[in-house]
Amino acid sequence: MPHLLLLFILSASAICAEKAAPVxxxxxxxxxxxxxxxxxxxxxxxxxxxxxxDIADNILLMQRDNGGWASNWDPLRVIPPExxxxxxxxxxxxxxxxxxxxxxTHMLYLSEVYKRTAEERFRAGAEKALQFILDxxxxxxxWPHSYPxxxxxxxxxxxxxxxxxxxxxxxxKVCSEESSVSFLDDALRLRAEKAWQCGHRCLLxxxxxxxxxxxxxxxxxxxxxxxPAAGRSFELPGLVSLESATVVHYLMKEAPQTEETVYAVxxxxxxxxxxxxxGLRIDRIDCEPVQYKYRVSRKDVVAVPDPEAPPxxxxxxxxxxxxxxxxxxxxxxxxxxxxLEHERRSGYAWYGTGPALLLEEYASWKxxxxxxxxxxxxxxx
Length: 381
Known about the structure:
The chain has a domain at 236-381: Glycosyltransferase (Alpha/alpha barrel). The protein is built from 13 helices and 14 strands. By secondary structure, the chain is of the alpha+beta class. The longest helix is centred in the middle third of the chain and has 20 residues, at 186-205. The protein has helices spanning 2-17, 29-39, 52-62, 81-88, 104-117, 120-136, 163-174, 186-205, 241-253, 259-275, 342-345, 354-366, 373-380, and strands spanning 157-158, 209-210, 213-214, 217-218, 220-221, 228-229, 239-240, 280-291, 296-305, 313-314, 316-317, 324-327, 333-334, 351-352. It has a five-stranded antiparallel sheet with strand order 4-7-11-12-13.
């Protein structure tokens, strides 16, 4: 009987979806990727992107009582009826997080669905999520990896997985009267505006200086001292390229173009240009499946010298030396991918080409900018 009921739910929802325009679910890519890796499957019943009220009801079901969400689940997954009570019983859990682009994305999705339906439950869920986001912010403006959990790196102010930038970008939408979150009352919108201002100030302050010159951002920071700190055991303190590229994109495209913002962008771009790696290609090759705690690995990763390869950036760079580095799960720092154990070598993006897209964006952004004299000095030196 549960299977027949599940089939009925899918069929009825699909009929309604034919007349509906999709609400983008691209914001959930990270959560979906991790869920599918944990399940080692992509072949389970899922709602279509056009079935946005069903997806939004999934999101409400998974929302915790404090307003946030856990990570690593698929909002499009059709939850079997017999499983619903399990999630209802976990409403009081404190496993809420911004990790893997969680919580602020769910708030924005619920807001868009409320805008389309005017159904109160979606508005209530979105407002509850915004309250959670505001409550989670530190007085210095930063946001932690997770809230209210405090163990280990969970309390660190976090750049990794776009925590700071993701929340700030969401708050910019909240503060816009033209966005899908325009239903907020004036008092809550004012709180969101003040939170954004404080958070943006913090983000600019976190840009790491080496020998007095701004570079890019670290992955995590101590929430009290604002010094770069470790995240997970293999995420040692260091400059991070991928998430710093997202920070710079945010500063160019969404932040007010003040002299200070322009200076931060120019110095970061200079770092990206100086830190690119040439003549190296990263290949993923087939190997025998290996079952690890969080996934099954069917690939290995090798670094291949290749003078024709496009520029690469390491995920981590030492602060001071700017030397690329990696680490095993036991925290041992290494300087080549061959020194990594297979579990970390195949299970983490240690190199990437993403900053190349940022440099292309920068070329277009720079044309209308008037670079302050301090920024010119940063680039020229």
